[in-house]
Amino acid sequence: MDHSSYNPFKIAQYQFDKVADLLELDEGVRKLLRQPMREYHFTIPVRMDDGNVRVFNGFRVQHNDARGPAKGGIRFHPMETIDTVRALSMWMTWKCAVVDIPLGGGKGGVICDPHQLSMREQEQICRGWVRQLAKNIGPWSDVPAPDVMTNGQHMLWMLDEFETIHGGRFPGFITGKPLGSGGSQGRTEATGFGVVYVIGAALEELGINIEKTTASIQGFGNVAQYAARLYTQHGGKVVAISCWDQTDMTSYTYRKKGGVNVIELQEIADKFGGIDKKLAADLGYEQLPGDAWLQQEVDILIPAAIESQIHRGNVDLISPKVKVIAEGANGPTTPEADEVLLQRGILTLPDFLANAGGVTCSYFEQVQCNSNYFWDKHEVLDKLEKYMTTAFTMVSEVSRRQKIGMRDAAYVIAINRVAQAVQARGWA
Length: 428
Hints:
The chain is α/β, with parallel strands linked by helices. It has two domains: 37-181, Leucine Dehydrogenase, chain A, domain 1 (Rossmann fold, 3-Layer(aba) Sandwich); 184-428, Rossmann fold. Helices cover 44% and strands 18% of the residues. α10 (335-344) links the parallel β11 (324-326) and β12 (347-349). α1 (8-23) packs parallel to α3 (82-98), α6 (187-206) crosses α7 and α13 packs across α14 (406-424). 50% of the residues are buried.
């Protein structure tokens, strides 16, 4: 099968079914957990800057809220699909459970391309999204956050619309807000830093000094940029970075002798993480095909872009030198590729563990907003590192004890926790 035809929700269900069989999960609980509890599909009419009305399709999926309010980002993407949102909401349930925060899983999206929209048009989409869901989301039931091609400004518009509708102040309704408007210190860095906290714990367990390692990264959005920054601060060397070029709609891998200078590339990147290839060439970067990031002779691969990027068609291109794959993106590895990596002995740090730093810090933001008491960045990042390394240690112990891969081990912990909550509530 062509990897482009993979359905992410089918992959999420396949991963769940595999561990549900391992756990001999009760049939009622299994049926409840392998599909979303609620879905919302709606349209958002927007009067565009040229005076015409354009209708956008939006979604919100609440997979499970047995352990607490649904939690999950809102994506703006021209290729968004309901099955992608379903899969991501399911992965969010496991993500919150594996790091043991009292939240469930949700996800949202709008089919649109922010590159082609003015700020006023984007604001109208944000406010329209909230108007369609105002009765079904909130700090007591479903707490959104930024995701692909959304940011703090989008969240603030959504918060303002929600508060206008409900006639009050509810800063805990949404996370990822700007500082000074209910946002948390450390939230911008959290997902990328969390990836590196888990990498560091894994390397320590393997007896490898991070200062002697190299990495190749796919993506140069928020997650990839901060992962690259902290990784290099710890002494690692980023050899290559792959990202999408918006001018010619092509991806490129950028490599430079002596290693990638992350700060240097940030200065020539747009707000969506696209690197100006002409300026990169002027700075001495070699431009390779977009998939060349996967073939680099490095110790660590960090896929931090989108789903299904490591698949049966390219997994054999991964260098024998690679020891660790840390999934900064959601669902970047297909099940067929996962089996190959397991057979090759490559330690895969699964997405809902490795990139759980974002939702963990979102939880911190929600707690701070609800108590109206905010922590400094040092305290936030200290708490974050503790949550991430504790979760890694638990997953690693289950992996060794049950002789299963890290992904299955993380699922065992997460599904057990959610299943116990479902049964305790008497739902199944």
